[in-house]
Every structure is written in structure tokens, then in C-alpha cells.
Design brief:
Order of helices and strands: HHEHHE
Number of helices: 4
Structural class: mainly alpha
Strand order of the largest sheet: 1-2
Strand content: 5-15%
Radius of gyration: 14 Å
Oligomer: single chain
Number of strands: 2
């Protein structure tokens, strides 16, 4: 297996997690507690947490300008 393919296999699952963390930073939620809970979930359940946030949690926050 080439090093490029190995790197790709490890990087692809990380992308939703980083995307969710950045998105969390730019959104306002009803409460800071809800935002913190999503952040904890995304960080401690990598890949799956990011995907779940992007599918369900993102709708709960409002985009700040």
C-alpha cells in the first residue's frame, strides 16, 4: 500500500470532524450549553460525531455574520 493511500484513508474520516468544529465556532445556538454539548460530542466521538452534527446539529444553530 502506498503512503499516499494510507494518508488518504486516515484523513477522510477526520474531515467531517474538523468541518463540524469550524461550523460550531461560527454558529449561535439557543444556549451555550447546547453548543458545548455538541462540541464535546464532536470532539470525543470523532468522524461519527462530526457527521451527526452536520446532519442534525447544524440546523439548530444560526449562522453569524
Amino acid at each position: 500500500m502506498s503512503h499516499g493511500l494510507t494518508l488518504l484513508i486516515f484523513l477522510i474520516p477526520i474531515v467531517p470532524t474538523f468541518w463540524a468544529i469550524v461550523d460550531l465556532a461560527y454558529r449561535d445556538f439557543v444556549s451555550i450549553r447546547r453548543k458545548a454539548l455538541w462540541g464535546i460530542f464532536v470532539v470525543f466521538v470523532p468522524c461519527l460525531g462530526g457527521i451527526v452534527y452536520l446532519l442534525f446539529g447544524r440546523r439548530q444553530g444560526k449562522k453569524t455574520t
